[in-house]
Amino acid sequence: MTPASALILCAGCAWVAQIVLGWWQLQRFNRAFDELCQLGAVGVGRSGGRFKPRVVLALAFDKEDKVRAGFLLRGLTIFASPAPLTQLNGLGRQELMQGVIFPQDPNVQTALSLAIETKS
Fold first, then answer.
1. Which residues contact 40 (CB under 8 A, 6 or more apart)?
2. Which of 13, 65, 70, 89 is deepest in the core (most CB within 10 A)?
C-alpha cells in the first residue's frame, strides 16, 4: 500500500466515523427534545459559531409560562451530550432575564434569550 492510498483510506475512515458519531449525537438530542415536548411548549435557542463552542438550550414551559424542564447541549465536538438544566425549573418566562442567569457565560445567555422568546 502506497502512502497516498493509506492517507486516502485513513481520511475515508475518519469521514465515516464523523457521520456515525454525528448521527449518534443527533439521536441523543432528539430523544431529549422529545421528552421536553411531552411536558409543554418548548423554546429552543442556540449560540456559538463555526470555531467557537456551540450552545443549544431547550426549555419546556407549562400553561402558566413556568419552566418545567430543560437541557443544555454544549461543546465543540460530536461528543457533546444534552445535560439536564434543573436550576431553571419553576421560574417564569419573565424571570429568565438575560444577564441575571448564567452571568459568566455569554453563549448560554444568548441561547437562553432565544429560547424564551415568544414564537408566533
1. 60, 61, 62, 63, 68
2. 70
Radius of gyration of the CA atoms of the chain, in A: 18
Q: Identify which of 118, 96, 119 has the alpha carbon closest to the alpha carbon of residue 108.
A: 96
Residue 54 phi/psi, 5° resolution?
A: -85, 150
60-96 pLDDT, tens per residue?
999 999 999 999 998 877 788 899 999 999 999 888 8
Q: Which residue has the cell 421560574?
A: 91
Distance CA 50, CA 29 (A): 19
State if pTM tops 0.85. Answer: no
Q: Are 114 and 47 in contact (CB under 8 A)?
A: yes
What the block records as the C-alpha cell of 113 is 434569550
